[in-house]
Amino acid sequence: MQDGYGFFHIITHFGNSSFIIFDQQGNTQEVTTYNDYFTQIDGEWFLYSPTSYTSYLYNARTKTSKQITDEELFTIPSEFTGATTFDIHHYPFVKRNVKDGMVLSYKFGLKDMNGKIHAKPFFDEYMGYSEGLHRVKINGMTHFITHEGKVVLKPSRNYKVESNIHSGVFIISGKKDNEEFYLLMNKKGTFASKKYAFLKETSDGQFIAVSKTKDGYSFLKINAMDKPTTTLPYKLDKPEQLKQLQQTGKLFHTDTQIVADVANKQPFPFPHKLLTPPRKETVSMEYTVGGKKYIGTFTHDGTKVYARELK
């Protein structure tokens, strides 16, 4: 759920797909599609393709759609990883070099809802947007650019960029003696933290920082200045699942069965099976009540947003 809206993906026995958009009040609206190309890209804005050849931008608040032309069609990211975010007013489009029906090459640029081109196609891959900068790849190397396509930051090839800009910094990773480490870097390209075994941004502008100890791994929350914001470090129950650590604000989980609060380590109110990693405001799950199975979305405090019985 982003800015008050979220969605469910429903697949029938015949293979058809539909999506139900819901809000914080439990109101729903259904958008029918025939494939998995549906994702929430900016709060009330959704991107979907009712066919493999045509895509639309849909606004859940105004309930209006806008067709995206074939030239504007771009790769739709995974809603479950949250890897890519968009500024709906400066979104990526693709320009293909086609000869005899074959795509020889392509480049991406940025344009707005009115069709105005802000950055002509010049980059190879779109990785996401936040805090005024777009993360793109040019010749296999990450660059941060403005809406107009000006390159303002180009991190070293020695590091892999792991996130968009988050509270003025972003996460990078590297390897030393075959061991992976993570750091924060600021917009000037300067290191902004010490090395950690793992870093993950949170929805409240902070980070989960995992450190390696003689007993395994422990973690705490830090801010963008590498200062702890939790009083005690917490031990990871399953160090082998370190890479699966997902974080949304005050919640963390180390596998599909555990959700706990960083402050007091209280578990979620009832047993469940997570269907997706917890998002900013909600978590989707399967659960059983009175012998009947349900699929539903709940807030982090256990309040039901939407649920239906599984037949």
Helix and strand topology:
Elements: E1 5-11, E2 17-23, E3 28-33, E4 38-42, E5 45-48, E6 55-59, E7 64-68, E8 91-99, E9 102-111, E10 117-123, E11 125-130, E12 133-138, E13 141-145, E14 151-153, E15 160-161, E16 169-176, E17 179-186, E18 198-201, E19 207-213, E20 216-222, E21 234-235, E22 246-248, E23 251-253, E24 260-261, E25 273-274, E26 282-289, E27 292-299, E28 304-309
Antiparallel strand pairs: 1-2, 2-3, 4-5, 5-6, 6-7, 8-9, 9-10, 11-12, 12-13, 13-14, 15-16, 16-17, 18-19, 19-20, 20-21, 22-23, 23-24, 25-26, 26-27, 27-28
Return the structural class: mainly beta
Helix coverage percent of residues? under 10%
Shape descriptor reads globular
Count the beta strands: 28
Largest sheet: 4 strands, antiparallel
Mean pLDDT: 80
> What Rg, in angstroms, do the CA atoms define?
21 Å
Q: What are the segments in which pLDDT stays under 50 over at least 5 consecutive residues?
A: 76-82
% residues in beta strands = over 45%
Order of strands, main sheet, comes to 4-5-6-7
How far is it from the N-terminal to the C-terminal residue, by CA?
A: 25 Å
Oligomeric state, counting identical vs distinct chains: single chain
Count of helical regions: 0
The SSE string, one letter per element, is EEEEEEEEEEEEEEEEEEEEEEEEEEEE
